[in-house]
UniProtKB/TrEMBL annotation:
Transmembrane segments: none
Signal peptide range: none
InterPro entries in the record: DNA/RNA_pol_sf, RVT_2
Protein name: Reverse transcriptase Ty1/copia-type domain-containing protein
Domain Reverse transcriptase Ty1/copia-type residue range list: 42-192
Record Pfam families: RVT_2
Amino acid sequence: EEPKKISDALKDPSWVEAMQEELLQFKIQNVWTLVNCPEGEEGIDNEEVFAPVVRIEAIRLFLAYASFMGFTVYQMDVKSAFLYGTINKEVYVMQPLGFQDPEFPAKVNKVEKAMYELHQDPRAWYGTLSKYLLTNGFQRGTIDQTLFIRRHRGDFILIQVYVDDIIFGSSNSQLCREFEALMHEKFQMSAMDVRPANTPMDKENQWGKDGTGKDVDIHLYRSMIGSLMYLTASRPDIMFAVCACARHQVTPKECHLHAVKRIFRYLKVHPKLGLWYPKESPFDLVAYSNSDYGGATQDRKSTTGGCQFLGRRLISWKCKKQTIMVTSTTEAEYVAATSGCGQVLRIQN
């Protein structure tokens, strides 16, 4: 559970570590300097804080055009993006509670660059990024000012900016590599490549080497599981892996989050798999059932799997942990077969 007060956060080592990492970025980027508190009124008037923000329709249009042209689309984001912006007014802030300079606790920080929580942040960051792109041969869109384009010998590259997230694609992969190198010259970027996975889950070790790890954001984990559960309506190939990960929604660990991310990497490799209902197929009902034995690592229960076809048309499938503890592979198979027969009767009726 996230702390609701600063005093609570300062007692949490993970939050203190995160703050120290953020303040280190402030130091690297020369975001502020320690000065004596000037005389003046508290507060500041913010003028010209508007920054262009891409509309969701523009992103869909970008992806649709990239699909039509056969582009490979990449994504990257800028680490601590707002720290790269510059502001034109004098701004002073108190030293963060719990992280004051022990030698000068009464001094304040004079802000030299944009920082998080200032109203000028988005505009300052957009100004820095757009100026950098324009000076390197890009042209800005007339209507959509978050879209940038650069042409080179008959090829071109499109850049779509959403605050600190950037998607880009080109008719020439070399232009994408050059753009990545260009961004790394000035900004600290996250990795843009996604390591592919050929299977939804590691069959040898589902939860990695340690099988535990630190706690992860429960809301993020549940939202990812929810998206995957929705997708299982047309992707039976991920059913087992998603159900295995869904069992850990109460206290998800790093190993479980890694397993969920592996499913997404698998989907990236196999985006076009789905259901196929051929017209010329017969209409006979055919069912299959199977079971492992004690495959659940936590309670050693078995898992039932099954599917039903009308000819070659897959219409129903199931992957569920059995509710009883079986004592043999034969018993586990009988439980699975019983479940399959029940589904067949429901389809027939």
